[in-house]
Every structure is written in structure tokens, then in C-alpha cells.
Amino acid sequence: MAKCRLQYPHQPLHKYHQKGDLIIGGIASQSFIVSNSIAFTEEPPQALPEEFVWTWIGVIVMDNSNGERFVETVFPMFSQNGVCFAFIERIPTLTFVNDVKNVLEEGAKIHDKLLGSTANALVVNGESYSFTFFRWFPYLTEQELITTTLKGKVWIATAQLVVTSFVFQRTWDMTIFQGALTITIHSNNLENFHRFLESRNPSSAAGDGFITEFWQNAFACVFPMRFQEQAQGNICTGEEKLESLPGTFFEMSMTGHSYSIYNAVYTVAHALCKISKSRLRHRAMVEGGGLKLQKEPSWQLHHFLRSVSFNNSAGDEVSFDQKGELIAGFDIINWIFFPNQSFRRVKVGRIDPQASPGHAFTINEDAITWHSWFNKQSNVISPHSELSLNYPENHVKKVQPLSLCTESCHPGSSKQVKEGEPFCCYDCIPCPEGKIADQNDMGVCYECTDENYPNKRKNLCIPKDVSFLSFEEPMGIFSAGFALSFSSISALVLALFLKHHNTPIVKANNQDLSYTLLISLLLCFLCALLFIGHPQKVTCLLRQSAFGIIFTVAVSCVLAKTITVVLAFIATKPGSRMRKWVGRRLANSIVICCSFIQATICIMWLAFSPPFPDVDKHSTYGEIVLECNEGSATMFYCVLGYMGFLAMASFTVAFLARKLPNSFNEAKFITFSMMVFCSVWFSFVPTYLSTKGKYMVTVEIFCILASSAGLLGCIFSPKCYIILLRPELNNREQVMLRKC
Q: Is the confidence at residue 396, as pLDDT, over 80?
């Protein structure tokens, strides 16, 4: 932040002041300076608007102590605010005439580096005469091929620089500086200042040798000397007009430096007036009847400067605060240059240290005219100006220029700093799976909340879909349809068996076991419906336990049937003692005991770690799965394991009895049914573990329906065939017939 202050040659009034601070537009006397000096605070007034994306800049300073101090001051400040430097170039100081060649060669290197750099914003700090060096840039280069179109840059100059030029530079091109922004000392128009300049000429300023020298240089003429016989060159008439000079050579309007000098002169005048009044009031001694004032040290002038307060002719108040700082500010000027070497200064912003927080720095970005190189299309501005000039196309106001080492990383990617390069030079890395970046130039990608997931571009979190196997979706309709169809078939078979309960084919191999098996299969098919629909507390508690117990009853019935077949065959042999074991009591005992063990396991499961409705937000991408948490995976696999043990036992016994005579050939059908049952449930475990979400439920429903259908088809279809299509075989003789 720049501040205007009263500067003492001894102890500084401002804590940020250091010896050698840049003094601008000041009047130096024996012991004081009233000036605007540039100082930077640790907290800038306010950041630039978001449209000014200038994080990759070049810096040009003078190769002297002031330039080094400027770099040391702004480097950490810019770095803390995310700005890094593409280059820092130092303009050599011209000490002797024979150094001109070296200075121009160094200038050519700076020019080529400036135009070859990707940095479009340049911060320039120098002395009041430094601008004359920059005017050489369009004509300095070490490159063999020179492009006709100069690359545009945004020049940002500090208040020390003044737009000026040497006599021989008055017609040089200024296009390279089009759209420059400068921080200038606050100024205001003074009444009659322009008229005063118009009236100035060598004849009106008698005794002013400077104006005569200036006049000859400015108008390229000479005044004939009194003792000179004949003057060589153009003769100065003294009637030449200052307003005819190019604006870059002589400016007719009030500049910040002139305004500061004007205020400084009046400030000193007011202070001297106060000193005179003070001496008159405090007479130190009287000698010879007259007054004689005591001579005071000149540094005591500072005391009177502190209390100076007046309004200048422009209406601005000139006063100092308690710290001795001049209450003023800086203007931000946008420079518009015209082909006829004239220019226009447009005030686009203000730096006011006395303003309220948030208003110390103001800028109107819409009022800024940028270099035409930044504009992709031509445009025409209305030709109404004070100078009645035709505006060239480089006065197009369009999108603000960017100055970036790397193009912005778009949403969906993050920045990764390139090794060995400044922090604002980076690569754009796509976000990894499961993470997003929803803004430009994000340092890291972040994960969405559990209720959301990244879209394909990884720049937005979108809500996850709620997923469960419902009755409305095709898979749920298909599963429910099959469950109801097979349960209906089971009910029809049961009805058929009840209708023909007195026939031998129904009575064979324990009629009650057949009824029990059909009822359990009917319930198994209906049990599959518990797995469809929105998981509720009741359904979660019942479905696995009901499935385990009902299926155990069915497998126990098959096991009992198999054992009954084997025992019945053995009992038919003469002298066999197995006859006492053949009967309903053994079959019922097997079913009850096996079912009781499974029921005990399920009761323990429900008592200690019951299933409950749960929400799975992570296993399936883009979905929130509503499911039943089994509570204890160990108990779940115990239920399946016990069921598998009974199935393997039934399969083993049936396989050993497969070669019994035809009259007892139900063991073959049991073998096939158990083979189907075991195949289905052995494939269930790896399939179940490899699926996620609602598809796990679908796999279990399929296994329930497939294994139940296998039992129903393999065991009861032969009997139904005989009852319905071959009733002549449904008699005692055929059932008791042996095949030797």
C-alpha cells in the first residue's frame, strides 16, 4: 500500500520507512522533504478483482539499490498471494557515454526475453527517466526475424515512472505500451494551469535560462545570440506552441508529480508563515528600539509542518495526520496511445489509505482498455474525443488478459507442481476414482460425501440412487413370478397327492414324509418373497431364519426318505432284524431331530446377533444399497453349512442305494435331486461373495428357487406322471413287483 507522509531526515515517522525509500515529486530543502513516497504494508488493501488472473509476471527494475529494495519487498509479498515471477530483469545504469552500447545490448536481451516469455503482465519499477529506456524496446532485438505484430503485454508501473521521452524519441512508436496501468500520485485539475502553460515562452520568463534551453531542444531550433553573426539551423521565434509538442514529450495537463510539487510549495509557504507569526508573538530581545528575532535551527520547521492544514485551489485538503503522514492517496491510470503521438489518461481506480476497510483499493475493470493483441476480434469505438481523433482498433475493450504459467486446471483435475519450477507452474492431473474437483486450479481433489458420488467428468457430486430389489423392477417381478409359480405347482402336487392318498404310489415310501416335503417346498418358494422389497426389521429377522429352518425340514424329509428306502430293502431279506426300524417313527424322528438342531442355531443367531436393516453406501458405485445386515456372518454360514451337511448325507445314502431294484428306485430320483441341490448351493458361496448390492439378494433367491425346483421336479414328477398319465401302473402289484 502506498502512503503519503511527511518524511523526516532523522527518525522516520512511519514504521515501514527505511533509509533510501523512493521519494517522488518532492521539494528538497536544507532539512525536510514533503513528498509522496512508496511504502508497502504487510497487508495489501484489497486483492485485485477475480477477472485479473495475473499469477505469472515479469519484473523489470533499475540495477541500483532502489531496484534491489523493490525486489526484496515485493517478492515475499507476491509469493504469499500466489504470484510467482517468470523473470526479474535489471536495467543497467548509464554512468558514462561509452556505456551506451553495452546498455543497448543489454536492453535487446531484455526485450527478447520479455516478448518470448509467457508472462503477459509486467511490473516495472524505476526512476523518473526510466521510461526513455523502455521506448527503445520496439527497436532492440538480437533475433534475426522480427515480427511485424508486437506481442501485447500489460505494463504495471509504479509511481516513480513518468511517461516522457528524449527529443529524438518524440515520433517513436508507443504501441507496445498500449493499455498500460500506472500507479500515479493523486492529482486534480488546477484552474488556469493549462492557460498558464500556454502563456509560457522564453520572452515571458525573463532570467529563466532553463526555458530557453528547453525551448531549443523541444522545437529543434536555436535562438540567435547577440554576438553571433549568423545562427545555424532553424531559428526559434518564441511563438511556438507547447500544445503542439507530442504528449509523450511534454504534457499540458496536471500530472501527479506537478500536483505534489504544487502542494509541497504551498505547504512550506504555510509553515514559514506560521514561523513568522510565532516569532512576532514571542519577541526574544529588543535592541536599539527595534525588534530582533532569535535565530532558530532549520529543523524546527518540522514542528510547524505537522500543523499545516489548508485547501488548495483545486479544493483538495492538504493536511497531515498524527503520524505526520500526508493524507492523500494514489490514482490508477490506464494509458491509451494514439498514432499521432498523443495519448489519453483514463482514471480507472484509486488507492486511498484513509478509506474504510474494503474500499482502500477500488478499480473499474470495465473502464480499462487493453492492448489489441489480447482481443481476438476487431471492434470500433465511437470517435468522440477531445482531440477529434480516429480511434484505431487497438482501443477495443474486451476480455481481461490472463498471465498464467499454466492454463487453469479445469474442474475434474488438480494441480501438481512441476519439479524444479515455480509453484504456479504445474501439470493438470485428472482426479482419481472416487474424487472430484469442482473448481478451477484446485490443489487437491476431494471425496464426495457418502450420500453422493462423482459424475463422469469428476467435477460434481451427484446424489446416489437408492437401490434394493423391489417388486416393481424386472428382476423383482421375474423372481416373484417364479416363486409364486413354483409354489402354485407345489400346491397342485400336494392337492393331487391328497386326492389320490389311497393309491399305492402315494402311500409308498412314507406318505406323511411326502406331504411334509411338499409343504416345506411350498413354503421354500414363498420364503423367496421375503427377500424382495424394502428391507424392514421384521423381514430381516425372518427371512434367513425361515429359509434355514424350512429348507432343513425339506432336506431332512429327503434324508428320511432315503434312509427309509435303504432300510425297507434290507428288511425284505429273510431273517432281517431291520423290520422293527422300518416305519413312521424313525422317519419322523430324523425330521424332528435334524430340524431341531437347525432351529437351535437360528434361535441363538436371533438372540445374540440378529439381522437388521442396514444401509451400504460404499460397496456399489453410485448407489446406496438398502439391505439386511446378517448380524453375524458366522451364524449365517453355520446355517448354510448344516444344511449342506444334511444334503451331502442324503446324496451319499441315495447314491449308495441307486442300484436297488426298480420297485425301490425312488433312491435314484433322490440322488438326482440332491445332486442338483448340492451343485446349486456349492456354487452359491463364491457367487454370493463376488456380487454386491441387490444382486447378492438375487443370487440367494435364484439358489432357493433352483434347489427347491430341483427337489420338486426330481422326486415328485415321476409319481405325478404315473398318477396322471399311467394310472394302470398305480396298483399294489406294480409297486411290489421285484426285478430279479
A: no
Which pLDDT score is estimated for 283? 54
Cβ partners under 8 Å of residue 368, min gap 6: 179, 181, 334, 346, 348, 397, 400
d(C-alpha 651, C-alpha 711), whole Å: 12
User: For residue range 696-722, what is the model confidence (pLDDT) as tens digits?
Assistant: 999 999 999 999 999 999 889 988 988
Q: Which of 55, 60, 58 is nearest to 70 (CA)?
A: 60
Q: What is the pLDDT of residues 509-531, one digit of tens each?
A: 778 889 999 999 999 999 999 99
Contacts (Cβ under 8 Å, ≥6 apart) of 36: 2, 4, 24, 25, 26, 159, 185, 256, 260, 326, 328, 330
Q: In degrees to the nearest 10, what's the CA dihedral of 340, 342, 347, 350? A: 120
Within 13 Å of residue 591, how many CA atoms lie on the same side as its CB?
A: 23
What distance lies between CA 25 and its chain's CA centroid?
A: 45
Q: Which of 476, 458, 568 is nearest to 513 (CA)?
A: 568
Could you give phi then psi for residue 285, rounded to 5 degrees? -165, 155
Q: What is the Cα 509 distance to its own chain's centre? A: 75
Band the pLDDT of 237: cuts 50, 70, 90. Answer: confident
Please choose, from the candidates 73, 172, 187, 164, the residue with its C-alpha nearest in 3D space to the C-alpha of residue 123.
73
Query: With 80 as the cut, is the pLDDT of residue 376 above it?
Result: no
pTM score of the predicted model: 0.58
Which residues are within 8 A (CB) of 540 and not within 5 positions of it... i.e. 6 or more apart?
A: 611, 612, 613, 628, 629
CA atoms within 13 A on the CB side of 653: 19
